[in-house]
Automatic annotation (TrEMBL):
This is AMP-binding protein. Belongs to the ATP-dependent AMP-binding enzyme family. InterPro entries: AMP-bd_C, AMP-bd_C_sf, AMP-binding_CS, AMP-dep_synth/lig_dom, ANL_N_sf. Residues 387-460 form the AMP-binding enzyme C-terminal domain. Residues 6-108, 116-330 form the AMP-dependent synthetase/ligase domain. Keywords: Ligase. Pfam families: AMP-binding, AMP-binding_C. It comes from the Bacteria.
């Protein structure tokens, strides 16, 4: 059976979502109604739908509905401010915006539950900021085939990378589906015939309780979650039976070796890691036993991927020598929506760089030396300094500002803003100023004032120098 749509017809009573209880047949009926509803509003192949939705069945319905009628679906972070949401909606050209269950109900109302005509695969278009801080849609060509035709490739790839197989299984959604990896794994779980347990949010003990109660077999997490669960008292950890877990996949941020080892001591060798980006998808992957033999690696190139490490002149470097990571895949490429210059800047011919520094060992396993120099990854979420700096510079008391990421044991990095002011202003006043401009998860945890900020000989602010000096002062 090739994926969700076929499974729903051949086995309609199979459980698709635990809460609210929804079978595959019921989910497909709803998906078909919404597909007809979108078509009734004049949407055709290649058009865009945006969803500003919390985790729940509605997000799943929108994913699977757009996925069978040739539409692009843009999941939008509901924590963003109105201005930030408006920018993404405007830039994407979304013809329909869904913001809650009532909007999904309105699309489905009065529509048939039969298959729509001329079914063709759609795609998800995630927005990523890049180092500039201005979000751009990562747009891939539509396959031009029925959704069933492309499912086997993806299920084969997942099987190779993280040992996920079609059949019985229960997938726990722990992260917001507006992020690319949780969204993709939700879709994959349904195409594999698994049951979804959708957590409304991540809390350490409730997540353990869900794994125990629903006999969860696979989940996708980020390292911050591991850290928080390891902080639970031993007696709390022992309350829950986690023996059903077979694959816990993690990505999005570097995981400290000690944290990963401690989780596998607790859960067994079930942690699968992959490295990539919204643009490249899963470029490198490593299974539990390979990682235990080489702690710290993010794996070898995934199937269909090739990798090169290049110096600043574009020359390939020998094994063991760090440089810029470049990858390419026969699975296809992407472009930044309406920004050919940005697309070209990220490529060297057919090769794409996520902008990270790393090296390959003699066996071809990749080790990361540094994440993108300016990018801050906090709790598995990408935060771009340029966006925060631009918002702070709108305050009349701010003469200049540099935003950096400072290592934090729990979150990976915290956002710190170093401000050069030319008038009296307090940290709280600056946070109040940011409130309507950027989402709260991007707000600096620390705001400090400096009489002067270091600059390059050309007068440009030196973020790397600021970071070096700040970290040195912290010891």
């Amino acid at each position: 059976m090739n994926g969700f749509y076929e499974i729903a017809k051949s086995d309609p009573e199979r459980l698709a979502v635990v809460e609210p209880r929804t079978t595959y047949g019921e989910l497909l009926a709803r998906v078909n109604q919404v597909s007809h509803g979108l078509r009734a509003r004049g949407l055709g192949t290649g058009d865009v739908v945006a969803g500003v939705l919390r985790n729940g069945v509605e997000q799943v319905v929108m994913l699977m509905a757009t996925g069978q009628i040739g539409l692009y679906f843009v999941p939008v972070n509901w924590h963003l401010t109105k201005a930030e949401v408006d920018y993404i909606v405007g830039d994407s050209g979304a013809k329909v915006v869904v913001t809650g269950p009532e909007d999904v109900d309105a699309l489905a109302e009065g529509m048939p539950s039969t298959d729509p005509e001329s079914r063709t695969a759609g795609a998800v278009m995630w927005y990523t900021s890049g180092t500039t801080g201005f979000p751009k849609g990562v747009q891939r060509p539509l396959p031009g085939a029925e959704p069933e035709a492309i499912v086997p490739l993806y299920t084969w790839f997942l099987g190779e990378v993280v040992d996920l197989k079609a059949g019985e299984g229960t997938h726990l959604v722990t992260s917001p589906m507006y992020h690319s990896a949780p969204c993709a794994h939700t879709q994959f779980a349904l195409h594999l015939g698994h049951t979804l347990v959708i957590a409304p949010r991540f809390e350490p003990e409730p997540i353990l309780e869900l794994i125990d109660r629903h006999r969860v077999t696979n989940a996708m997490m980020v390292p911050t979650m591991f850290h928080r669960m390891l902080l639970l008292p031993e007696e709390v950890r022992k309350r829950y039976d986690l023996s059903s877990l077979q694959q816990v996949i993690h990505t999005a941020a570097a995981c400290p070796v000690a944290v990963k080892k401690a989780i596998m001591d607790w859960w067994g060798p079930v942690l699968y890691e992959y490295y990539g980006s919204t643009e490249s998808a899963i470029a490198f992957s490593v299974k539990p036993h390979d990682w235990l033999a080489r702690p710290g690696t993010v794996g070898r190139p995934a199937p269909t991927f090739e990798a090169r490490i290049l110096d600043e002149r574009g020359q390939e470097l020998p094994r063991g020598e760090p440089g810029m990571i470049y990858v390419k895949s026969s699975l296809g490429t992407f472009e930044y929506r309406k920004d050919p210059a940005k697309t070209a800047a990220s490529m060297r011919g057919e090769w794409y760089t996520p902008g990270d520094i790393g090296f390959l060992d003699e066996d071809g396993f990749l080790y990361l030396c540094d994440r993108r120099t300016d990018l801050i990854i906090s709790g598995g979420v990408n935060i771009y300094p340029a966006e925060i700096e631009a918002a702070l510079l709108e305050h009349p008391a701010v003469a200049d500002v540099v935003v950096i990421g400072v290592p934090d044991e729990e979150w990976g990095h915290n956002v710190v803003a170093l401000v050069q002011a030319h008038a009296e202003v307090t940290p709280q006043e600056l946070l109040d100023h940011l409130e309507p401009r950027i989402a709260r998860f991007k707000h600096p945890k620390v705001i400090e004032f400096r009489a002067e900020l270091p600059r390059t000989p050309t007068g440009k602010l030196s973020r790397s120098k600021v970071r070096e000096e700040y970290l040195a002062a912290l010891g």
